[in-house]
């Protein structure tokens, strides 16, 4: 009876999560969809991939849509035999973002049930975790892969705790393996990496407990073996994805550096430190886990518009010279954010009550949870400081494997957003239920922590202006007093509102706990009060960053690259900052569409209006010189940095010719101009001269000054390719593209003498194969980033095809691992119910 009653409560909790997720996302009822910046960019960049899939029913793992061409592994490619990804899709069947919100709730609910075995606390913890503000900021931005990964944090940890803490080996194996597989399938390695940094503390904690004989060493070894096997199988189920990306990442900005200059050293791996640590959390800024607008919140808070209007009025009233205006411009940054990051969409707010209960949890929770969660939380906070704690950051960058592959250390705070709700509900559960804790001890800790927390907020409220400053050093240097004083006062108001709220919320929670101790309030009522107040707090803060304004009509969400404007469209767009760029870019999009329709041959477009290397409008209509992607090929990124940062009027055209930029889109958004580039090299050409150079630096410098139609720059290491081969000029020779698909190109050539053909296709050493008259031949890199092949005299059919071997190998490994998971899980469940009736003894808490 009790079991059935518990199942009913669990079912009610699941229904509650569905209701909350839909209530937060009410515009989905009217058919509206989220408008997410990164997803808009994805739609443009992945258009060629999506079209190819629709036209052929097959998958291409290469696309020419962005940056001259790149693998599609990080652009939404699908892998055959990818069963685990199908499971992920099935679990996320609700419309976006309902699916993410529900899964965040449900995943932590499972973790809560494992940790405290009580649905009330699991439900409370699920709302703590599922409403963490950072997740809603990420959803609004379109970081879907990140959220998809985070939603599996809690259930993966639940599986590990089932093994280590609950000694439920079989169920622990099943849960850990499944959610390890789903975690990897979500395809955000950075988030998974950060989670496993924290899980390392759990492993150390269990090892220490085994050494101290608090748990049997045999149990620790068996548990560690089971978890290791689970992780291996879970990873194995994603072999295609992992093998392909592992191969790819070596050639990207996350792999080894090729050039040697001020910011790079040839052979070093990963990104340069400046790029890695650009988004580093300030030390004081960490307190916005507790007070959301401690440092102004996000760069675009709702109050920012009113502040901007007043700033403009103040400038008009007080500034009388251009020199003074120029000085103000140097100091003018974000109105509503004044932290250490270049800018931010919002704070990593965890909730005032959650932080307060987490502090209590570090006193009340069982030691087996307390110390590893504390250690993991401290480490991740310190790492989030990035450039503001260089001693630790340098150590991790230089000595901890793979850490230097990831940027934006502030995002590691997702670990805290998992662990604080966990320690909070564990501490709260023990506070209410554990007879070993005396009332006197509870009252003392509650007094110290509650009083200390409230006192801290009061100190900030009273002395905040002098302690926090509410301005940056740059603002203090350049802004006149009338502007600086105004900004400080307005920012202090934003802070004061949230600080007072935090004080009230914590006071309510502390009072509820105190009244329970005094037996003047029922425990369930106290939990309800804490849950409702915390939900209200997080819900209202989250609505600042993800609200009804983020939803748009389906037509805009699914086709953000409009080519026609109308009065109706203007009416719908007016006042919506998310949609205004759509209307502003109509003329540019129309120009791109016209080019693509009139000239259906294969070429690239250089769009200098929308920000060449931060837009995918061009890619939506035709192959682009630019694009928008965080994991570009290293060689292409080097060319961008070498030539397009300065825009040399002689060298840049040479590079555009090399990359077959047949059209340039110049001018402004209102009157874009499509200018043909008759000097573009074309899809392929024969060269008559070779220039051998000794270093990558010489390679990249040379391509900006040579006549690339006549001369090819070749690395001296490729001299051996020409042994036994000759190249002789032939003015009548030609090579033409006869068939184009993103993963297969065919050419016809004719020459009286042997030639070196250079192709305006990006060099990638894995997966591309060349065939001349049906026979596979080797090829080399030319001009730093292009492909080249030696062509004998005569008439020839040349074909290049992208057939990465890792895809086929990975498919079979993935299928074998998934089959192994099903086999072992089935055998385990059969054994469990056959021998033990589906029950295992639960260990006593300690």
Automatic annotation (TrEMBL):
Report the InterPro entries cross-referenced here: Uncharacterised_YfhO
Instruction: Tell me one Pfam family matched here.
Output: YfhO
- Transmembrane helix: is it a keyword of this entry? yes
Give the organism the record lists. Answer: Chryseobacterium salviniae
Keyword annotations from UniProtKB, A to Z: Membrane, Transmembrane, Transmembrane helix
Keyword Metal-binding recorded? no
Q: Which residues cross the membrane?
A: 7-25, 98-116, 121-141, 147-164, 169-186, 192-208, 220-237, 348-366, 371-392, 412-433, 445-464, 499-517, 524-541, 812-833
What is the protein's name according to its record?
Answer: YfhO family protein
């Amino acid at each position: 009876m009790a079991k059935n009653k518990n199942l009913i409560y669990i079912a009610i909790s699941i229904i509650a999560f569905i209701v909350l997720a839909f209530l937060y996302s009410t515009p989905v009822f009217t058919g509206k969809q989220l408008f997410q910046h990164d997803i808009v960019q994805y739609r443009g960049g992945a258009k060629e991939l999506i079209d190819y899939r629709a036209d052929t029913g097959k998958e291409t793992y290469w696309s020419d849509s962005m940056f001259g061409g790149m693998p599609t592994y990080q652009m939404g490619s699908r892998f055959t035999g990818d069963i685990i990804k199908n499971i992920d899709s099935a679990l996320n069947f609700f419309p976006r973002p309902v699916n993410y919100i529900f899964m965040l709730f449900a995943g932590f609910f499972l973790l809560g049930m494992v940790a405290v075995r009580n649905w009330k606390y699991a439900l409370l913890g699920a709302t703590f975790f599922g409403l963490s503000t950072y997740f809603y900021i990420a959803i609004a931005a379109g970081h879907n892969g990140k959220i998809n990964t985070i939603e599996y944090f809690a259930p993966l940890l639940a599986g590990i705790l089932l093994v280590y803490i609950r000694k439920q080996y079989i169920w622990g194996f099943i849960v850990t393996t499944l959610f390890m597989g789903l975690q990897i399938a979500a395809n955000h390695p950075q988030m998974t990496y950060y989670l496993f940094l924290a899980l390392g503390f759990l492993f150390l904690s269990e090892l220490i407990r085994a050494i101290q004989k608090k748990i049997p060493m045999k149990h620790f070894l068996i548990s560690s073996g089971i978890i290791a096997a689970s992780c291996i199988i879970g990873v194995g189920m994603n072999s295609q994805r992992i093998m392909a990306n592992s191969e790819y990442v070596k050639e990207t900005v996350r792999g080894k550096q090729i050039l040697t200059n001020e910011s790079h050293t040839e052979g070093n791996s990963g990104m340069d430190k400046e790029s890695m640590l650009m988004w580093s959390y300030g030390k004081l800024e960490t307190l916005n886990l507790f007070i959301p607008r401690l440092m102004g919140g996000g760069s675009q808070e709702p109050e920012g518009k009113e502040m901007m209007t007043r700033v403009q009025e103040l400038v008009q009233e007080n500034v009388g010279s251009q020199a003074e205006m120029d000085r103000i411009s140097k100091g003018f940054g974000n109105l509503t954010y004044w932290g250490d990051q270049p800018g931010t969409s919002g704070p990593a707010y965890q909730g005032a009550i959650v932080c307060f209960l987490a502090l209590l949890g570090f006193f009340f929770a069982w030691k087996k949870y307390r110390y590893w969660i504390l250690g993991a939380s401290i480490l991740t906070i310190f790492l989030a400081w990035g450039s503001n704690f260089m001693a630790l950051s340098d150590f991790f960058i230089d000595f901890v494997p793979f850490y230097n592959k990831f940027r934006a250390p502030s995002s590691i705070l997702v670990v805290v957003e998992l662990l604080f709700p966990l320690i909070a509900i564990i501490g709260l559960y023990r506070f209410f239920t554990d007879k070993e804790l005396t009332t006197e001890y509870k009252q003392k800790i509650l007094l110290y922590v509650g009083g200390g927390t409230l006192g801290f907020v009061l100190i900030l409220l009273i002395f905040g202006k002098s302690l926090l400053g509410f301005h940056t050093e740059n603002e203090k240097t350049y802004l006149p007093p009338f502007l600086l004083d105004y900004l400080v006062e307005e920012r202090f108001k934003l802070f004061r509102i949230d600080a007072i709220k935090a004080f009230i919320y914590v006071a309510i929670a502390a009072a509820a706990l105190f009244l329970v101790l005094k037996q003047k309030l029922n425990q369930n009522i106290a939990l309800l009060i804490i849950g409702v107040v915390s939900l209200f707090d997080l819900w209202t803060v989250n609505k600042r960053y993800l609200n009804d304004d983020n939803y748009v009509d389906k037509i805009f969400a699914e086709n953000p690259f409009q080519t026609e404007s109308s009065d109706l469209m203007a009416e719908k767009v007016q006042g919506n900052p998310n949609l205004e760029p759509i209307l502003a870019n109509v003329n540019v999009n129309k120009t791109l569409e016209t080019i693509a329709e009139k000239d259906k041959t294969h070429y690239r477009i250089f769009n200098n209006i929308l920000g060449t290397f931060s837009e995918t409008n061009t890619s939506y209509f035709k192959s682009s010189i630019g694009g928008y992607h965080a994991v570009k090929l290293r060689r292409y990124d080097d060319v961008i940095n070498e030539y397009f940062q300065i825009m040399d009027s002689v060298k840049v055209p040479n590079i555009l010719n090399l990359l077959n930029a047949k059209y340039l889109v110049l001018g402004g958004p209102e009157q874009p101009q499509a200018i043909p580039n008759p000097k573009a090299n074309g899809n392929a050409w024969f060269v008559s001269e070779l220039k051998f150079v000794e270093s990558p630096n010489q390679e990249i410098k040379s391509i900006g000054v040579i006549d690339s139609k006549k001369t090819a720059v070749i690395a001296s290491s490729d001299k051996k390719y020409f042994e036994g081969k000759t190249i002789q000029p032939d003015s009548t020779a030609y090579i033409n593209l006869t068939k184009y698909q993103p993963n297969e190109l065919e050419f016809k050539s004719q020459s009286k003498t042997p030639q070196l053909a250079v192709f305006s296709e990006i060099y990638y050493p894995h997966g591309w194969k060349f065939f001349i008259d049906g026979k596979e031949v080797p090829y080399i890199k030319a001009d730093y980033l292009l492909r080249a092949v030696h062509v004998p005299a005569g008439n020839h059919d040349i074909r290049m095809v992208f057939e990465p071997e890792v895809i086929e190998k990975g498919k079979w490994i993935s299928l074998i691992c998934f089959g192994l998971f099903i086999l072992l899980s089935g055998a385990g469940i059969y054994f469990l119910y056959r021998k033990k009736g589906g029950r295992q003894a639960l260990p006593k808490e300690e």
